[in-house]
């Protein structure tokens, strides 16, 4: 039996027993129970047949993403941003590098004095290695890294694949704020997460707020990143509240909250060079 069906059976027993929904999810009626029963007939991927990276990612593309988190010395953040905005566009203007700049941000709410960068490698791991090998021979890049290192307290990165049912991140005009919601899942639950969100994403498309959804392949594992765009914090609040008024959204929350170990929200402001404005 697939993980989603096992989790669903346990949830149904709780519903019949009158248990409260976890995570503050809304109450359920017999109609919701019937909706859950109908969901059993929705096609679900079987985790026993293949790696979840093959089952959940876009098969028509071989895009690989890298997300990088830099914790910057507070007194250096302005200089760091200026150096980044000066050097990165030059590197990415070279068509010989199989790498696209997707987005660059400073964290506004969340971990302070932090920069977040997202790249796309068209062609997967071979493209990543090709780009890395070329950068090792690029003096301007090496000087940039040396100068940048003096400004950092720490840095970490992950290699990511994109969920097949999410939008692919495309440049957009601003001004926008961005929310990066990071979920660390219990090991073995990625398929169940994907099965639920493949249905739930339709509830979050009205205002084109869904930018991209990714899951980790290298670095910390069983990590999911959802990237959203809003005009401002008030728009974020209204958009998220509107989702609760749509039939089916509360079921997604009910079935995915038990899969999460920890979750984090960052509100981010784009740098001037970010294609996502």
From TrEMBL:
InterPro entries: Dimeric_a/b-barrel (IPR011008), NIPSNAP (IPR012577), NipSnap_domain (IPR051557). Keywords: Autophagy, Mitochondrion, Transit peptide. It is found in: Mitochondrion matrix. The keyword Transit peptide applies. It comes from the Eukaryota. GO terms for cellular component: mitochondrial matrix. It holds the Pfam family NIPSNAP. GO terms for biological process: mitophagy; sensory perception of pain. Residues 178-275 form the NIPSNAP domain. The keyword 4Fe-4S does not apply. Belongs to the NipSnap family. This is Protein NipSnap homolog 1. It comes from Pipra filicauda (Wire-tailed manakin). The gene is NIPSNAP1.
């Amino acid at each position: 039996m697939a993980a989603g069906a096992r989790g669903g059976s346990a949830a149904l027993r709780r519903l019949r027993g009158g248990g409260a929904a976890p995570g503050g999810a809304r109450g359920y009626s017999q109609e919701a129970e019937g909706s859950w029963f109908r969901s059993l007939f929705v096609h679900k991927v079987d985790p026993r047949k293949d790696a979840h990276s093959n089952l959940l990612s876009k098969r028509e593309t071989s895009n690989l993403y890298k997300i990088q988190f830099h914790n910057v010395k507070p007194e250096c953040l302005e200089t760091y941003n200026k150096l980044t905005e000066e050097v990165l566009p030059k590197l990415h203007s070279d068509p010989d590098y199989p790498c696209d700049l997707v987005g660059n941000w400073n964290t506004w709410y969340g971990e302070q004095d932090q920069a977040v960068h997202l790249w796309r490698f068209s062609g997967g791991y071979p493209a990543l290695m090709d780009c890395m090998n070329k950068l090792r021979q690029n003096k301007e890049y090496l000087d940039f890294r040396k100068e940048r290192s003096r400004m950092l307290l720490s840095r970490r990165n992950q290699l990511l694949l994109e969920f097949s049912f999410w939008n692919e991140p495309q440049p957009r005009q601003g001004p926008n704020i961005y929310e990066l919601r990071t979920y660390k899942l219990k090991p073995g639950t990625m398929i169940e997460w994907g099965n639920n969100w493949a249905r739930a994403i339709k509830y979050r498309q009205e205002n084109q707020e869904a930018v991209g959804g990714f899951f980790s392949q290298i670095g910390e594992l069983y990590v999911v990143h959802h990237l959203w765009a809003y005009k401002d914090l008030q728009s974020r609040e209204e958009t998220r509240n509107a989702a609760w008024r749509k039939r089916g959204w509360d079921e997604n929350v009910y079935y995915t909250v038990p899969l999460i170990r920890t979750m984090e929200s960052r509100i981010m402001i784009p740098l001037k060079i970010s294609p996502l404005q």
